[in-house]
Specification:
Radius of gyration: 24 Å
Strand content: under 5%
Distance between the termini: 43 Å
Strand order of the largest sheet: 1-3-2
Shape: globular
Largest sheet: 3 strands, antiparallel
Number of strands: 3
Length: 305
Amino acid sequence: MPLAQDDQRLLLALIWSLKPSDLSVLQAHLQEAGASQIGTTKNSGNDIFYSKLQALGLAREVPLSLDLPPATLEALKNMKTFTLTEAGKAELSSTMEIALNSGYPPSDSIVSPEAIQMLKVYAAEGNAPSQSKLGFLFQDGIGVESDQAEALKWYRKAADLGDIKAHNNIGFMYFAGSGIPKSLDEALKWFIKAADLGSTGAMDNIGEMYSRGLGVAQNYSEAFKWFHKAAELGHGPASCKVASLYSAGQGVPQDNVQAYLWFTVGIAAGIDATKNLAAVASQMTPEQITEADLLASQWKPREGK
């Protein structure tokens, strides 16, 4: 029987809340043809996850055999073993991609107390992605009461361990003065740290600051440099900003072919820029449009760090 809609939304957030190593174990088990057993430590993040799956009818606990030697039973007293049901395998397989690629946390998900507890357990273990996720939930008040100080605490812990999203989000907090004194200088420093780690969102943020003269002197050439870095890595909004600068000749020589190319790249990434593309095309010759279409068909994002 298919899961109810709200249970499907709960499942999205539960999968998103798994730490990378536990997520890898789950993915491996989903690829196995038959039933397999998954061991967990009681009260661990993984145990919370599979216990919730059991409540949803997607997994079941496998009791330990009483025929095991006493010493073995003693060693396993803090362990629990689960196996996925057939319904569980089907639901998890169909939900996995959505859970991992549709927002942060997943769009339309329900962040349950179990998901929060999973992240808290992982975060206390020193898992940086979990710390960053927990910070985000406290910052936006998703599944918990909004608490900017708590958000910043977890972001800083994650940033100390090199988490990219945490660096960028601390920059946002300084930029907005959210739970911390507003400082565009500090915001720029954190955005640059995140960009150096490969964050395309941070590159786009830096470009915005230079484009709009926020905390820095307005500099379209510098804005173009940062937007272009992000666009080359596949950041859709930055692609359209590169296109706009080419179209206006701001910070870079005016070039309708390049503007057309980058609007096309942005549209392919899901940005609604069809009107912008049409406006540029209206100023181009058929030969220029053919050239730009060829460039767009050959374009591929550059690999990041």
